[in-house]
Write a structure and sequence with these properties.
about 170 residues; alpha/beta; Glutaredoxin; 5-stranded mixed sheet; 6 helices; about 25% helix; 7 strands
Length: about 170
């Protein structure tokens, strides 16, 4: 660097060689979209989400022991309620199999995938993540404060408003 604080042509070329473009295909969350595999409640493997994402998909991270999850299990049923009205694919992801889940899941698409909870950095239920085609990170995510609130967040995101209720804190 010169005494005036300017880079030499060689230094500038090196800086440009190492630079990386700022991604413009991100959602509001820093969590990268990852493929999800797991097990069906009835047994057998399940491929829940592949990358690249081909359709808007709402991932609901729920548990049979979570009182706040009950209305979300009901809302995840195909063809009924606020979540179906959003037009996105809805998938329930549970951390572990539980006999109580059979009644709660009903006809909803679901999988047991503890790895998905880790990949999507979910610390506890009820939580949701919306993944969209063409996005390298989760579009929106947050605590699932009920079906109506999640449906409203999804509708906003589908309209291009990628806002998080509470941004994630990034550590060193």
């Amino acid at each position: 660097m010169s005494s005036e604080g300017r880079l030499s042509p060689a230094e500038a070329a090196e800086v440009l060689r190492r630079s990386q473009p700022i991604p413009t295909d991100r959602g509001a969350s820093p969590v990268p979209v990852s493929a999800i595999t797991g097990r069906r409640l009835s047994g057998g493997s399940a491929s829940v989400l592949s990358v690249p994402v081909v359709e808007p998909t709402l991932l609901l991270f729920l548990s049979a022991t979570c009182g706040g999850c009950l209305d979300l299990f009901a809302a995840a049923q195909p063809g009924s309620g606020e979540l179906a009205e959003t037009g996105v694919r809805v998938v329930v992801i549970v951390r572990q199999a539980d006999p109580a889940l059979f009644d709660l899941i009903g006809d909803a698409e679901a999988a047991v995938s503890p790895d998905a909870w880790t990949q999507y950095q979910v610390s506890g239920p009820p939580f949701f993540s919306l993944v969209l085609p063409g996005r390298s990170s989760v579009a929106i995510e947050g605590v699932a404060w009920g079906a109506e609130a999640v449906a409203l967040s999804v509708a906003r995101a589908l309209g291009g408003d990628f806002a998080l209720e509470v941004p994630r804190l990034e550590g060193p």
